[in-house]
User: Which sequence fits this backbone?
């Protein structure tokens, strides 16, 4: 369980700078165990700040004005050090290079497990599992500096999954990935969520991908929650999303156009399979 109660945060300004606006303002919400949540919004909306507050990086590594409370599994993040939270909260950052601590892929994945004193035979098992799961076994001995951005992204995700955290936080995990790899990552996350009951929280700009996989969508704008509900309920929020500068999936717009034209009366889909059925029904083919 993750609980935000009247939470606001403003990053500390430099000595010669004026105080910045609040990155997050008056956030009150709960994320229940086993949810698959997508966080989206335009640049500067507060998405990364939200993940930092869950992992404890705020306020322990990023100082500033902190109001209200954030609790993770009943623990106040102000009172618990991030190293303690890291035992059950795994985070993949948007800036992948800042997360890397080793020079070789295998060492990068081993690092966290060795720090958490995972038994040696279990380490070997987990290493093989995540290498195969992410399709990066061939990169095992490679220098991280020689990898592409997408390959680094997969290594960072593998390093976190090897720790088997209860809560998985990912900030733009597919930003460097092609469509095929993007689908692969989200299929893995869906499996972890459904079969292993992991709580998955993803910051993502690809709204179509979020609608296809997450069960709940949270939209931030200027530090405030503007929408929080089931991902398929965005079909009734087109104007809100447009006003926030967020493009809704094209299939949703198509569904609305067909309804306005009196050609379709069913449920508006948010993903491609549903769109195909809708078009076939309209075309009677």
Assistant:
């Amino acid at each position: 369980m993750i609980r935000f109660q009247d939470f606001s945060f403003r990053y500390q300004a430099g000595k010669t700078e004026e105080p910045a606006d609040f990155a997050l303002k008056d956030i009150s919400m709960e994320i229940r165990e086993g949810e698959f949540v997508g966080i989206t919004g335009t640049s500067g909306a507060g998405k990364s700040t939200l993940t930092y507050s869950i992992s404890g990086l705020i306020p322990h590594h990023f100082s500033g004005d902190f109001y209200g409370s954030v609790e993770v599994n009943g623990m106040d993040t102000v009172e618990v050090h991030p190293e303690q939270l890291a035992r059950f909260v795994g985070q993949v950052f948007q800036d992948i290079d800042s997360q890397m601590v080793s020079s070789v892929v295998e060492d990068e994945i081993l690092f966290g497990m060795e720090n958490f004193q995972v038994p040696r035979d279990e380490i070997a098992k987990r290493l093989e599992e995540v290498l195969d799961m992410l399709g990066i076994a061939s990169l095992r001995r490679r220098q991280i500096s020689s990898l592409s951005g997408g390959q680094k992204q997969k290594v960072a995700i593998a390093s976190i999954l090897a720790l088997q955290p209860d809560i998985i936080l990912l900030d733009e995990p597919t930003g460097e990935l092609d469509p095929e790899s993007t689908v692969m990552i989200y299929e893995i996350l869906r499996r972890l969520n459904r079969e292993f009951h992991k709580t998955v929280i993803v910051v993502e700009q690809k709204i179509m991908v979020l609608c296809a996989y997450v069960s709940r969508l949270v939209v931030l704008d200027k530090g405030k929650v503007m929408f929080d509900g089931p991902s398929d309920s965005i079909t009734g929020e087109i104007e809100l999303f447009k006003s926030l500068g967020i493009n809704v999936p094209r299939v949703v717009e198509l569904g609305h156009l067909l309804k306005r034209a009196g050609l379709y009366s069913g449920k508006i889909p948010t993903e491609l399979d549903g769109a195909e059925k809708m078009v076939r029904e309209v075309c009677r083919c």
User: Anything to note?
Assistant: The first strand starts at residue 2 and ends at 11. The two ends are 47 Å apart (CA to CA).
